Amino acid sequence: MAKTATKKDKKSSKKEADRIALQHLIEATEIDVKRTDAAQNPPETQIRTGRSVEIDDLYKVVLPGDPQASPDGTRLVAPVLTIDRESDEYRTTLWDIPLDGGAPTPLTSGQWTDASPRWSPDGKWIAFTSNRKDKKPQIHLLPVAGGEARRITDCENGVGEIAWAPDSDHIAFTSTVAPEKDDDSDVKVITSARYKFDAKGFLGDKVSHIFTVHTSHPDAEPVQITKGHFNHGAPAWSPDGRQIAFVANRDAAWDMSRTNDVWIVNAGGGEPRKLTDSKGRWNGPVWSPDGATIAVLGNANVKKAEVNTWLYIIPAEGGKPSRVAKKLNRTIGDSSMSGPNGAPGVPFRWLPDGSGIDALVSDRGSTVVMRFRLNGKRPIQLTGRGRHITAFDRISDDDLVIAVTDPTTPAELHRVTKDEESSLTSFNTAWLEGVGIPAPEEFWVESNGEAIQGWLIRPAGNTSESTPVPLILNIHGGPHAQFSNSWFHELQLFVARGNALVYINPRGSTGRTDAFGRAVKAAWGVADMPDFMAAVDHVLSLGGLDANRLGVTGGSYGGFSTNWLLGHTDRFRAAVTDRSICNMVSMAGTDDISIPSLHPELGLPWETTELYWNLSPLKYAGNVQTPCLIIHSEEDHRCPMEQAEQWFIALKVLGVPTEFVRFPNESHGLGRNGKPKHRVERLERTLEWFEKYL
Is there a domain that residue 263 lies in? Predict the structure, then answer.
């Protein structure tokens, strides 16, 4: 007689079926690339034991980034970020790092912010920007043979991007220029829709232009080579030194448009020539070694509202942009929100023979370097997953230097060949020896037909059999960004205080297909809330976590999501909403990016008013019961202060326990680049709130 299946058997069978279905969903996220030996065998994340991470460790971590290999391939120069507690300032020092195994040495004193080092093509000079005068970055030249750095610009509004000419005698750079005023009125008269920007404040009528300066003549004045009331950026010299490519929107209504074209201008100035058709948005042009082609990042048609950024090549004489590696459905560049982790670098570089391009790629919570061959063959992954590569350079064809971090190790510089990877710096080794840093446990969970990637960090000693500890959900901003396999001081602090932490890359995140990123279009909160709750339920099922002591926090879009969750579930006992959004209706037009970002996501507010209000957490404030701390910066132009003010008053009227903390003289990026003392206080207040209510 056949045995009748018991309830236990049926439950076990369903569990196995669910496991198999999830595995198929996970496998569907894989990408078809070749991998070098080094890519298949990256260094493992270290298990570190010792004392818990403290807020004060913010001052102890050293962050190298943006490595630049010398033309002869014997050494690197890299900016190294530290924090000076006494002055409450960031310092960036340039370091010389030999590739023969010698000890790194500082090239500059560490008293200022010395950034963006670039070798002259002949290897005799290092150009960099420094704020040594009036706190505004100016170009300085450091002789490689020895001697003091010499300042060569004195621009009223400082200098932005810099690029050497092939002759090593000229540098192109960007700087903002304000039109001359015919009176001394202090009244602001605004005519451009792009009149403010977060961390820059009110722009007025200032626009960015491209200049060149002769480096061999000490008294040479910069020459402005672009004209008109338009913003110009990303200058790149042609290999023969006769032309400069750049990006700009030079239409009369440029401030009302989301497009950006690639242009070419003669190095001596003149009327620029447009290469693209004013339908796309382009950035970061780089000439091929033979000067026949320009590689660029962007999207060919902004009306498609693509989330991922693609790599294209364009004939220098004109023609249709051609997308490289069309089958690789991943954003090109580093779209990670974790950090800060040192200065970023350029996202891609041509191979010396012009046969391909090496580029950073965001892939499922990691950033890797991939080689794109222009002959149509599959991309080659040169570095391993499970880490966050913030910048890279090429020493030779199959020899890279990367600035890399993983969840238990702050950024360091590594050398990568086809076969292996080795360390070049150890700025943080001594600090790490005494610190316990628990490694995240990666997981995948099914949510509405998608495999959602996430991580759980347990406090030291916590296991599935332990006495349950509080669990906090942390939500990243964007929404089009990703949490990465990266050192993140802030996340570790939650765990150091005895909480478990869960964080995920929900729908809308990068690192996946463009369709996955676009899944939240016109559905903020609606599309991704199931992903958050599925992750919370999944980790709770693992044991050792207290379902009755749940917290939630996030910043920017993560603040929006925090507010949204509070209005749609009562499962959370405490919340901290940071630089958040609560009212999409009033957000539109009071922020600094409505035209390029908000309108494509949600439409025009006077045409889709109901959608804007339906997607506003404020509409659901009457459901909120969770004690909520509100943190906001007074100079935040991305998510304006009025958003926090509305949320605070709503919660006060409703009798929900709340506090409203306003940080003066800080912008949207307070948590990453605000004044160190403000970053410390923000962390203290956040942790104290969770300790009080969890």
Answer: yes
